[in-house]
Specification:
With 73 residues, the protein is mainly beta. Helix content is 0%, strand content 48%. It has one domain (2-64). The protein has strands at residues 2-8, 14-16, 20-22, 33-35, 43-52, 56-64. This is Sigma-70 family RNA polymerase sigma factor.
Length: 73
């Protein structure tokens, strides 16, 4: 079975390390998701990773660090 995974909702700060493949009966795979902290939005965020063709959805929640305000010199 061919499968694919993608981050939806414009979550460009999520990195999926496997996005597609093919599984034979009895095989499994691991989809690793990491956060690109340089692109992560500040404050609380919520994103979805969808796996096709099963329709499985994993909701991931996090909290980005706000960009520090420069102090006047």
């Amino acid at each position: 079975m061919r499968w694919s995974a993608s981050a939806s909702g414009g979550a460009s700060w999520l990195r999926l390390h496997h996005t597609a493949g093919e599984l034979r009966p009895g095989e499994t795979t691991t989809i690793t998701v990491s956060v690109d902290h340089d692109r992560e939005p500040p404050g609380r965020w919520r994103a979805r990773v969808t796996v096709a063709p099963s329709g499985a959805v994993v909701v991931i929640e996090g909290r980005g660090t706000p960009t520090p305000t420069p102090t006047p010199t």
